[in-house]
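#struct-pred

JT: dropping the chains for the assembly here, can someone run the whole complex?
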Amino acid sequence: MALNTTVYPIQDGGENLQKPYRWTVQMSQTGNTPGVPIDPTIYQKALPSNPLTNPIGINMFGVAAKRADNPVEFIDNIDNIFYDRAQADAFFPAEDISDMNVWCESPTFGTGWRNTYNNLMRWYSDKTSVSSQYYQYYPYTRINPNCVCLGVRITAMKYITPDSMILEEDYATETEKHTFQDYASYMEERENYPVIVGIDVYMYLARNVGSDSRTTWTMGFCGDIDTSTGAFGRSIDLENGEFVIDTSDSTGGGVDPDYATVHTIGGGSHYFSGGVWWIGEDQISIHYEYYGLQGIGAYNIRRFYCGVEMTLAGEILIQKQPCLILSFSGNIETLPNAIVTCYGFPFARTESAVQSGNIRNNDDIYVPTLDSDGNINGSTNVPEEKDPYLNRNSTADPNYDPMNQDPNPPTSDTPLDQPKLTTTNVFNKSFAMTAVQLRGLSNYLWNQNESTFETIIKGLGLMGTNPINAIISVFLYPFEIPTASPLTEITVGTINTHVYGTPIASDTNLIFDLGSAVYWEKFHNFLDYEPYTTAYLYVPYCGIFKISNKEFLGKTISVKMVVDVMTGSGTAIVFANGIAMLYKNCKVGAQIGVTGENAATIAGNYISAIEGGLNTAISAGQSAAIGNEVGAVTTAASGLTSFAQSLYTAENVPIDSKGSNSPSCGAYLPQYCYLITERPEIIEVADYGRLVGYACCKSGTVGTFSGYCVFDNIKLDITNATESEKTEIINLLKGGVYV
Amino acid sequence: MEIQLLNTSSDPRVISKGYTSLKITNATPIGEFSIQSPVLKLSYGDWSVGNANYVYIPDYLRYYYIDDITIHSGKYVLIKCRCDVLMSFASAILACTALCVRSETAGTNEIIDRELPLKPKKDITVSAFKGGAFNLNTATEYSLNFVLNVAGGAGTNPEPEEE
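RK: done, full complex below.
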């Protein structure tokens, strides 16, 4: 492939490269194993806006994925979604949004094609590369064959290191295709070994119009991407990671424009920084630190120790500064395959190849193919039968048919819509009052003033009953009533009280937000699930209740409460990533007795509820399963939902909670939600893997495993062993052997 | 028959063991025995290897642990052997197909590991929600936190809207 020697400046990507987007994400992987998927969150170095001396620009264009919310997602763990809806959605008709298939592997659902809704999938480039630790993150990508075109620009410079760079022999690499033995060799050879200084991603869109065969694509446009904030809602951390071009040297010297004269703001070891600063006539290089891009396939990762520092006396010291420079040894052909294996999407090497639309027969379009071990490789001219999208064969689910899709469009949220009509202020009147206003009303009604008394007597005659009976209820709520109505005189029965209140309109929004928190997934394995990790949620006036990990783990838990101001009742709705998952009824309004009879009735209701709830709680406590969790609490049975409870019941021990339990007491309890999580603590044992091993479920030949292994379901094929020997072999393998 | 006296320090559970060859000598099998547990007689001079703990018998195509050594001083040595089936059939074992249920290196965090040692006590954390509309902690007597519901009646109502 001939190298495109044109360098596209960052700010102008050309006709079809509108507003190049630069991913600024963090690299969490520090491993250096080729073929291991890159953590797609990679901080990128901003490239200088001016062409550099003897640069080599290689433009690659690939095809990436789209789902309803975002065209492309690079996510560092399966339960975190950071991206907002992309503007590019407008380009795709509804049928594209509903037809989303990815081939991928899900830790929950296994391998095979799945609808992307709520199934967070990922590509593996090396499925046997797993960690014996339980804390490894697996990066992944959502893939959709009805795709977005993703342009990747890789700008390689022939050399960016300053002349004073000293190379050490201590390289941290996996494989070396070329080694600079010493500085002199490097100086001789460096022009032949371009160094990748960054990978920029250009987003533009194409739509598959060739149905399932993905042979025809229509080029679209590059969405209106805000490069200052990051495309698709991905913000760029301007303070800590974004690279800027500094044409002035704060230390007083000038900057050589022929070098990557850039610096980081804030620095930090996760960012690729490098460059040459001049101080007067002396040259100082800052160290290159970069944890990114190690995983791109066959590329050599070299760690150079370099750096020159000036002392106060003007002496030049050679300092070792760790740095990583991604370089490739001249085989540009391997780069697309590396991209494909790591990111898992078809990759076109030229813009024209993408525009041709035919991914089936194009030498410049790499399509990922999947082998029986789940390894992904990139190949051109891939026939349909080897296209993973069209290939229905899956070791985990051979009968899965990607054409058999759920016809129901997925729902990404269940918002609460404020009703336009409620029971408020229809037949009766509701007023939002302050304590001062209420006192004023009470003073008026119980006023011993003769004229007021006569007015009340007159009203008694007109109404036929004590006008105070026109007062239905008075409640104290733990929130301000959101009403903007003008003050209105309150009429009780037929009596104008000359006391003013703020009417509550029928369409007053009585949905209250009680905040949110993320249910953090700590272990990223089975320990995050019940019974190992349990979680409880406290909602004001609802108490504490258990929540299910499978519904809430790793998601943002938010709570809203809908209140009926006429009755004081409320319903708390618990959301998981915007989907309502739990509903809890409660009593949130503290009712205030208006008359003696009224107050006695109210108190009696509360006491009855307490006693009834207590009996239920005791029964529940005694019959509760005996477990070894300590301190778990739940609310009482749902039969008490008509009267709010703050009873707490230990799972093993019944609680005696005689006493006031009105919402007025609830007002003293925390007025905010909180999440209680109980997580296990692992006992760290040295050499645990070597002695006991970790749970595993992988089939294969015994020789493909290593270290301590325990086997089962052994298919033994030994021709010259006796039966007793075979039995012994099987028993030994089942008991654990060292391979 | 010819035997190889060996020394191995490998764990018995190692499939392909490493060993040090000490001596190739002759031995005579004694009596009737299972091929898995032969008893061999060596001349005292042939034995002269104090640290032999492993034997390979080419005639049997098997490796053996030396379970016991009986020395008739100056005369002969009897060694009781026990077949090391893992080493004897290592190639075939490594080529067989099996399901690995525990592994030092291939473990996956997707499988429930009931043998993972956990402390009896749990780490309990409490996370307060951010945000929230309740204001009782900051409300004043001028806050609109009260609701008065009155039957029927009306205050000063606005003019009805035209349809």
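JT: nice. The longest helix of chain A spans residues 596-623. The longest strand of chain A covers residues 195-208.
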